[in-house]
Design a protein that fits this description.
Structural class of chain A: mainly beta
Distance between the termini of chain B: 41 Å
Low-confidence stretches of chain A: none
Distance between the termini of chain A: 37 Å
Low-confidence stretches of chain B: none
Oligomer: heterodimer
Helix content of chain B: under 10%
Helix content of chain A: under 10%
Largest sheet of chain A: 7 strands, mixed
Shape of chain B: globular
Largest interface: A-B, 24 and 21 residues
Chain lengths: ~110, ~110
């Protein structure tokens, strides 16, 4: 069984630029999550999708972050414009039953 | 609101010795508890979970965890640590009424040869 795929693995941008991350969950998993993991901290949930609908985006900074899952499969997370404090690893996860399965993450560095 | 505390930033043990990583939690309802491990430049890997039933849960790579409701703890244990167990370990909790996971800050485990 293929795992959760994410790309790119690494991205370096300057502040005020925009960036997008892509996630392909495990086949058949209806629930998809995006997390932000700042160095030295645990992952923090940004947004949760159930199929192509948003279940929880209460911690998503909506003035600069957006996410979509148009066909209930792949998802993209966008930051525009990026700030220095957005430097983090962005993790995508999908869930079928109780446990969440995580992708390798995208490490974003904002300079 | 649910939360998790991992009181130790780092745990250092010698190979072959027992390993314990501590976790305490707070939820309003019944907890679902999880342990994940993260190796450098990798995503989180699921180790084990407690949903209900036996308080001692066995997971991957020889790890186990004990659920203690009175102490609101879910400590991760391994009887004999390996150098390859060196990694970052996260405890996570969710309320039975909410699918949102809350993670602790993580504990770095170093196993020396």
């Amino acid at each position: 069984e293929a795992g959760v795929a994410q790309s790119p693995r690494y991205k370096i941008i300057e502040k005020r630029q925009s960036v997008a991350f892509w996630c392909n969950p495990i086949s058949g998993h209806a629930t998809l999550y995006w997390y932000q993991q700042i160095l030295g901290q645990g992952p923090k949930l940004l947004i949760q999708f159930q199929n192509n609908g948003v279940v929880d985006d209460s911690q998503l900074p909506k003035d600069r972050f957006s996410a979509e899952r148009l066909k209930g499969v792949d998802s993209t997370l966008k930051i525009q414009p990026a700030k220095l404090e957005d430097s983090a690893v962005y993790l995508c996860a999908s869930r079928e039953s109780y446990e969440q399965y995580f992708g390798p993450g995208t490490r974003l560095t904002v300079t | 609101a649910q939360s998790v505390a991992q009181p130790e930033d780092q745990v250092n043990v010698a190979e072959g010795n027992p390993l314990t990583v501590k976790c305490t939690y707070s939820v309003s309802g019944n907890p679902y508890l999880f342990w994940y491990v993260q190796y450098p430049n990798r995503g989180l890997q699921f180790l084990l979970k407690y949903i209900t039933g036996d308080n001692l849960v066995k997971g991957s790579y020889g790890f186990e965890a004990e659920f203690n409701k009175s102490q609101t703890s879910f400590h991760l244990k391994k009887p004999s640590a390996l150098v390859s167990d060196s990694a970052l370990y996260f405890c996570a909790v969710r309320d039975t009424n909410d699918y949102k996971l809350s993670f602790g800050a993580g504990t770095t485990v170093t196993v020396r040869a």
